[in-house]
Amino acid sequence: MRTVGIIGLGLIGGSMAIDLKRRGFADKVLGVEADKVAAQAAMTIGLADEMVSLEDCVDRSDIIVVAVPVGAAVKMLPEILDRIKEKKIVIDVCSTKEHICAAVKYHPARKQFVCTHPMAGTEYSGPWAAQPGLFDGRACIFADQEESAPWAVQTILELYACLNMRPIFMSSSSHDIHTAYVSHISHITSFALALTVLDKEKDEKHIFDLASGGFSSTVRLAKSNADMWIPILTQNHNNVLQVMDTYIEKMQQFRDAVASYDEEALRKLIEDANKIKRIIR
């Protein structure tokens, strides 16, 4: 009999709860949710068998999943590790890793913590966004796994195998660099595009009537929750700033080519960008 406690039953935590229970990895799911409305929704939807306090969750669970915004997770993880007993495992699912790993690096129970980031999600948040199959076929990053006990890593590999995820191992610093390029800049770009169009909409009332699928897919991430993304961008600010500088440089190249009617320069920029098809199909 295995009990999994999930702290934060939003999109990621709630989706994990659904599949870990349905697919037989967890016999029981305990939920922790600070927001009373979200807690009631999680119970109504059936994400958890029982809603409990943080202390209860840690004491009664074999595996504790910390699925809260990264700013809260950095503060919470040492307190959870202070409380756990032998053979319990703690994991997080946050989008930045260096600060989290630094916060627990010298903790006596560090070996029982496995630092993970399931690379899946949508622009929606809260228990209402949880869905089965969210993680199927996606990658899960294990950061600084050499700092964790082998038996703990093996157990969490089994957890993510149940979610049909493939593991990738890297350092916490490499993780933060890579996610700045493949995730964080995408959200910033989407936020900026949304602001640009909303400013124009003040004068052009029909602009959204003309929006097509291309616009909708590009701006989709602008619906993402500020409480989640503010700590991600501030904690990973060095890497994010580097990526933003590169992005601004590329935008300037496009601007210069458009301003000078330079069709050859535009063609080269677009055809160079087309090479992304070799990576993303």
Notes on the protein architecture:
The structure is a single chain. The protein has helices at residues 11-22, 36-45, 54-60, 70-83, 98-104, 150-162, 172-201, 213-219, 226-235, 237-259, 263-274, and strands spanning 3-7, 28-32, 50-51, 63-66, 89-92, 113-118, 139-143, 166-170. The protein has 281 residues and is α/β, with parallel strands linked by helices. It folds into two domains: 3-171, Rossmann fold; 175-278, 6-phosphogluconate dehydrogenase C-terminal like domain (6-phosphogluconate dehydrogenase C-terminal fold, Orthogonal Bundle). It has an eight-stranded mixed β-sheet with strand order 3-2-1-4-5-6-7-8, sandwiched between helices. The longest helix is centred in the middle third of the chain and has 30 residues, at 172-201. The chain is globular. The two termini are 42 Å apart.
Could you say what the CATH topology of the largest domain is called? Rossmann fold
- Judged by helices, strands and strand pairing, the structural class is alpha/beta
Q: Which segments are poorly predicted (pLDDT under 50) over 5 or more consecutive residues?
A: none
Please give the CATH architecture of the largest domain: 3-Layer(aba) Sandwich
For this structure, what is the CATH class of the largest domain?
A: Alpha Beta
Biggest beta sheet attributes? 8 strands, mixed
Strand numbers in spatial order across the main sheet? 3-2-1-4-5-6-7-8
- Gyration radius, in Å: 21 Å
By CATH's scheme, which homologous superfamily of the largest domain applies? NAD(P)-binding Rossmann-like Domain
What best-fitting shape do the alpha-carbon axes yield? globular
Q: Please trace the helix and strand order, writing H or E for each element.
A: EHEHEHEHEHEEHEHHHHH
Intertermini distance: 42 Å
Secondary structure: number of strands: 8
What share of the residues lie within helices? 40-55%
Q: Give the number of domains.
A: 2
Question: Hey, roughly how much beta strand do the residues contain?
Answer: 5-15%
Q: Compute the number of helices.
A: 11
Mean pLDDT: 93
